[in-house]
Design goal:
Layout lengths: L16 E5 L4 E4 L1 H6 L15 H10 L4 E7 L7 E10 L3 E8 L3 H44 L3 H34 L3 H25 L6 E5 H18 L2 E5 L7 E5 H21 L6 E10 L2 E8 L6 H6 L15 H11 L3 E7 L3 E9 L3
Parallel strand pairs: 7-9
Antiparallel strand pairs: 1-2, 1-5, 3-4, 4-5, 6-8, 9-10, 10-12, 11-12
Helix pairs in contact: 3-4, 4-5, 6-7, 7-9
């Protein structure tokens, strides 16, 4: 099979790019590749004779983005040294980027320029559509609030988010690949800013997708202390770095509840994360406190998460679980609305008590496993 030109975001890369399968057969290439290499069906056909075994083992046995130096046969020279970068895509395909050692700086500059041009073009298009998008978002908000449900907005958002998330993953991988070279030429901040924004975009997409998931399909019994201890473990390091004391008082070590474990972890993670942010906003750097306690009331277990953060006024408390309501500058207003729906779908309820300057207490009531 001859090399096939790929019509994708990789086509503009100013250095050779190959998409290969797990047998290293070439699936497609970038336009630039035709100018440098002869058309071959297998990637090892362009690798120098002395490097074939080394290349095959390295490419197939390496689990993540990495680099190797290889002599490759170009149209003009049978022994040209390249930096070869490897990036996996799922279980079936491998991205291979080849940068000539002697021309690497110039090629990276060209890649950065291409990225800059693409970002400027994308930004221009987004600005043109901003008014239209704002109107659509307002309509979605009104629809969700009117129906008192996240189902409709979730279905709309999911269809959009699925289309966005895959390209974001590819772009993120490419930025990670370029970052070491960007640092070398003093452009490391390009990658840092772009990766930070990509992570934020992915977080927003994750929240939107969770509004449309069918709930309550995977309920199973779990020890309450295990569920909460898993959350404590996740936030342990962050709590130490934030000088925040995170505690859990176990009242009944054998108490069990029946819930969708993944969804309930999402609820607890969201609330504890919000509590840490509230403490940071209140500037309580030395005496931040988040306490998780449990008690039994009327055949239910009540999980209470109390913090001494900035707290909230009555108006905020009353609107806290409404879709799109947020007090955060970059918040989506989806997180707590999703938490409310998850707890409700698990036959529970969630409430909050708070006062400005005094902190907040979230209470989650769930049926005890029988």
């Amino acid at each position: 099979m001859e090399m096939q030109l790929i019509a994708s975001k990789y086509d503009k890369i100013p250095f050779p790019y190959f998409l290969v399968d797990r047998k290293l057969k070439i699936v497609s290439v970038s336009k630039c590749t035709f100018n440098i290499f002869d058309e071959e069906s297998h990637f090892l056909d362009i690798v120098g004779i002395g490097s074939k075994k080394k290349a095959a083992k390295f490419i197939l046995d390496t689990p993540s983005i990495t680099k190797i130096e290889l002599n490759l046969k170009t149209k003009s020279n049978p022994m040209t040294l390249f930096d070869v970068y490897i990036q996996y895509e799922g279980k079936n395909f491998i991205h291979i980027f080849c940068i000539d050692k002697e021309e690497s700086v110039d090629q990276i500059y060209q890649a950065v320029k291409t990225l800059e041009d693409d970002l400027l073009y994308a930004n221009h298009n987004l600005l043109e559509k901003q008014e239209q998008l704002e109107k659509l978002l307002q309509q979605m908000k009104e629809m969700a609030i009117k129906q008192d449900s996240l189902a409709t907005v979730g279905q709309i958002a999911a269809s959009i988010a699925h289309e966005i998330s895959n390209p974001l993953t590819s772009v993120k991988g490419f930025l990670q690949l370029l970052k070491p070279h960007l640092i070398e030429i003093g452009k490391g901040h390009y990658a840092d800013v772009a990766l930070e924004e990509l992570n934020r975009a992915n977080d927003i997409i994750y929240e939107f997708l969770n509004t449309s998931k069918e709930k309550n399909k995977d309920r199973q019994p779990i020890l309450l202390r295990k569920l909460i201890n898993d959350i404590i473990l996740i936030f342990k390091s962050e709590a130490i770095l934030s000088n925040c004391e995170l505690t859990y008082t176990v009242n009944d070590p054998e108490l069990m509840i029946t819930v969708d474990v993944k969804q309930m972890k999402q609820v607890l993670l969201n609330i504890v994360k919000n509590a840490m942010e509230a403490i940071q906003i209140s500037h309580k750097k030395d005496n931040g406190m988040i306490a998780i306690t449990t008690r039994i009331e009327d055949g239910h277990v009540v999980i209470q998460i109390t913090d001494n953060g900035i707290g909230m006024g009555k108006e905020t408390v009353d609107s806290l679980f409404k879709p799109f309501f947020t007090t955060k500058e970059q918040g989506t207003g989806i997180g707590l609305a999703v938490c409310f729906e998850i707890v409700k779908s698990n036959n529970g309820r969630i409430e909050v008590a708070s006062a400005e300057g005094q902190g907040s207490a979230f209470s989650i009531s769930l049926p005890i496993h029988k």
